[in-house]
Amino acid sequence: MWKNWIDERMNLKWLSDGMKKSILAQYDESCQRWGRLRLSQIKSKQTDVVDLAGGTQRGYTKPPEHVLETIHKGIDEGSFEYPKDEKVAEFRYLVAEKLKDMYGLDLNPRSEIALCVGASTALDAALRIFVNPGDEVIIMDPDYATYEAQAASYNAKVISVPLKEVKPGEWDFNFEDLEKRVSQKTKLLMISNANNPTSYLYTEKNNEDILELANKNDFYILSDQVSEEILFDGAKYHSIASLPEAMNRTIMCSSFSKLYCLSGLRIGYIAANNKIIEQLNQIIGWTTDGIVTPGVDAGIAVLKNKEKTREFIKNTLESLRKRRDYMNERLGKMEGVIPNNPKGLYWAFPNVKSFKIPTQQLAEFLMQEEKVYVRPGTWYGRNGEGHFRISFCMDPEWIRKGMDRMESGLEKISKKII
After folding, report:
1. 329: which residues sit within 8 A by CB, 6+ positions away?
2. Whole-Å CA distances, 278 to 93, 237, 282
């Protein structure tokens, strides 16, 4: 079935080579585009599905109240045109101030900060300005689901570097694995920190080694930091952008989607040197013509009302920690499942290799038999095989129902295996 789906698209004469490569860059029935479609097809025939695949906080956690008030006020006052220049300037200034507070960066808000429609715009724009056909783009494996296909769509050669599960549930970055894959054709390294889906947090030493390698081999680094503030158990976050001279080679992007529950307003930003920002602004102008006006209002409200925002962050992280702990406890009690106890992000990435069934097939079984939606780890790279990505940013009752159904489904699988 999956092969017919791929062949059909390869035979479309009007489809660009880049888009065809974006499909072929992935693999067999675990291809993310096919896998997502297949699970959606199964879901469409079901009712009462518990969806644990979500990438953002949905329903249970609302944006900060002071942000909602600002959005409503803007709408009441007619904020339907392009955002006013003075508001855009204020938002850029506040982003620069935030990055100075967090990472010690001294950035010019006018020339070293760009506002964009979600961080996803930054990913695509960076590939567009840096990558020529045949250039090599390095991506960790596993890592964010769209990187590989996006890079391939620009006719880049994708080079995967494995993150290693040193023991079930524990992941680590090995610098030598990256170093030996760098070549004269390497143009860009795309990396999420914390790593989506494993939650691995890159250390200061990791980042120092990566930056030194980039300087030595003349490639650039895209640091995707959309979950930079979602941390648990006293975990420390280190951004590669905070290293001396890093902004000569780093494009850092983030958004207000994850922690602040504002994904629908598409508020993202990019920090880089002025020459890179100039080019990024051209792409942003061509493709989206700027950022959404209510998004500008919301972003200003988040960053300007620091005390209220800090209280929101504190309460949200504590709530997420409790939900994470509950999910970890439930996963740990399921026979054949090993949880990973994430320190960053709000997704778990449990190891289910003991079932010896491809996780795409396992996810399809859980959807069909138990009406629970989990994401196969192979959507994030070959090295994600044997894992699920499941969200604990949902309503606690939703998580409980999902864990009940997942446990029931895996018990059925175990009996079949035995």
Report:
1. none
2. 17, 28, 7
> CA-to-CA distance for 407 and 401, rounded, in angstroms?
10
Q: Is 104 exposed, middle or buried (0-12, 13-18, 19+ CB in 10 A)?
A: exposed
pLDDT in tens, 243-286: 999 999 999 999 999 999 999 999 999 999 999 999 999 999 99
Within its chain, how far is the Cα of 206 from the centroid? 20
Task: Provide the 3-class DSSP secondary structure of residue 58.
Answer: coil
Report the C-alpha dihedral over residues 134, 139, 141, 144, rounded to 10 degrees: -120
Domain boundary among 306, 327, 362: 306
Quote the pLDDT of residue 137.
98
- Backbone phi, psi, residue 93, to 5°: -60, -45
**Tell me: the pLDDT tens digits for 19-51?**
988 887 666 666 778 888 889 999 999 899 999
**Count of domains in the chain?**
2
Q: State whether 243 and 354 are in the same domain.
A: no
* Last-in-domain residue among 257, 283, 306: 306
Residue 353 near residue 376 (C-beta atoms within 8 A): no
Token pair of 98 as six digits: 């935030």
Q: What is the pLDDT of residues 327-378, one digit of tens each?
A: 999 999 999 999 999 999 999 999 999 999 999 999 999 999 999 999 999 9
What one-character DSSP code corresponds to residue 333?
T
Residues 121 and 167 in one domain: yes
What's the pLDDT band for 5 if we cut at 50, 70, 90?
A: confident
Assess whether 181 and 300 both reside in one domain. yes
Closest to 381 in 3D by CA, of 198, 178, 209, 203? 198
**Domain range spanning residue 396?**
2-61+310-417
Specify the pairing of strand 50-51 against strand 372-373: parallel
The pTM for the full model equals 0.94
Q: What is the DSSP track for 133-186?
A: TT-EEEEEES--TTHHHHHHHTTPEEEEEE-EEEETTEEE--HHHHHTT--TTE
